[in-house]
Design goal:
The protein is of the alpha/beta class and 342 residues long. It folds into two domains: 234 residues, Aspartate Aminotransferase, domain 2 (3-Layer(aba) Sandwich); 88 residues, Aspartate Aminotransferase, domain 1 (Alpha-Beta Complex). The protein has 14 helices and eleven strands. Helix 2 packs parallel to helix 11, helix 8 packs across helix 12 and helix 12 runs parallel beside helix 14. It starts with 15 loop residues before the first helix and ends with a helix. The mean pLDDT is 97.
Length: 342
């Protein structure tokens, strides 16, 4: 068996319950492009978790969910405000700017979280035709630094956005991890907090592929079904994405998987903190651990375990736990660390 790495929760396998759901869906012919009974059931589950009036659309991946969700609520003269570390700013190959036509206004943060006092100076150009007009505040929940916005922080950002004729979009690739961290329901940290558009992630929480774009006001969805098609994210055999979401949301699989990966990250951080030469740099709110490891040891560790260097200047690495990470995986890794980092 291939050794489990700590590079990314994208590297993990597929949860057995998800595989079983796909097998069950693989029965006969049904209508394509989402006009099937499995997709209808999955949409109802999203409405159960997020609110009965939400509009839900399934897409292939996270970049597509973010880009198409943002495109549906912006015009090319608008700007999208995000953290400097945001996935839309760093890891989507310029797709948000290419396909929305908007400018990203990125803000440096220590922990991946945006704050109102950082955003206010960007609003001085409102109404000035020589400048792009801020339209969306985009946040990641959990953030790329593994931190989590509290319910109060989200409500504060949403209220500020709405008071200034803006919207709040959430990249929820790891929103299940955030909800577990906050001991909250999915609706509590989205609809109830004032979120307008959400990318709901499944891939990082045990699915093969598939994300959902959720609009909490159906009017914002507008022509999204055409935008999705033109954006090449309309799955023809949608039932196989829908079946995965049904497995995730019909019971508590989304919560169980996220709780496990969060717990494994906590264990990993606590064990690493016992090594004197290693320093944990961020609160471990979700399933990511950020730590400074002396640079000379990193290549030695990477020969046995794959993980990413996050910030080469300070020798900071990112270690991710997944739904299938085990305590033995962590103890084996820690043993290698202790033998290497002396």
């Amino acid at each position: 068996m291939t050794k489990r790495s700590f590079a990314s929760d994208n590297n993990a396998g597929i949860h057995p319950e998800v595989i079983e759901a796909i097998k069950a869906a693989n029965d006969g012919h049904v209508l394509a492009y989402g006009d099937d009974h499995i997709t209808a059931r999955a949409v109802k589950l999203f409405q159960k978790h997020f609110g009965r009036d939400v509009a839900v659309y399934f897409v292939f991946g996270g970049t597509g969910a973010n880009v198409l969700g943002l495109k549906s609520v912006t015009k090319p003269h608008h700007a999208i405000i995000c953290a400097e570390t945001a996935h839309v700013n760093v890891d989507e190959c310029g797709a948000p700017e290419k396909f929305t036509g908007c400018k990203l206004l990125s803000i440096p943060t220590q922990d991946g979280k945006l704050r109102i006092e950082q955003i206010k100076p960007l609003l001085h150009v409102v109404g000035n035709e020589h400048h792009v007009q801020p339209r969306v505040i985009s946040v990641s929940q959990a953030t790329e630094m593994g931190t989590v916005y509290t319910k109060t922080e989200l409500k504060t950002l949403a209220s500020f956005a709405h008071d200034n004729d803006m919207l709040l979009q959430v990249d929820g690739a790891r929103i299940s991890n955030a909800a577990v961290s906050l001991n909250a329901g999915l609706k509590e940290i989205t609809a109830d907090a004032g979120v307008d558009v959400l990318s709901f992630g499944g891939t990082k929480n045990g699915m093969i592929y598939g994300e959902a774009v959720i609009f909490f006001d159906k009017k914002l969805a507008g022509d999204f079904k055409y935008i999705r098609k033109q954006g090449m994210h309309l799955p023809s055999k949608m039932r196989y994405i829908s079946a995965q979401f049904e497995a995730l949301l019909s019971g508590d699989l989304w919560k169980r998987s996220a709780a496990h990966s969060n717990r494994m990250a906590q264990l990993l951080a606590s064990e690493l903190a016992k090594v004197p030469q290693i320093r944990i740099t961020q609160p471990v709110d979700s399933n990511g651990v950020f730590a400074v490891i002396p640079a000379k040891y990193i290549p030695l560790l990477q020969k046995k375990y794959f993980f990413y260097v996050w910030d080469e200047e300070i020798s900071e690495v990112r270690l991710m736990a997944s739904f299938d990470t085990t305590e033995d995986d962590i103890q084996d890794f820690i043993e290698v660390v202790r033998k290497t980092v002396k």
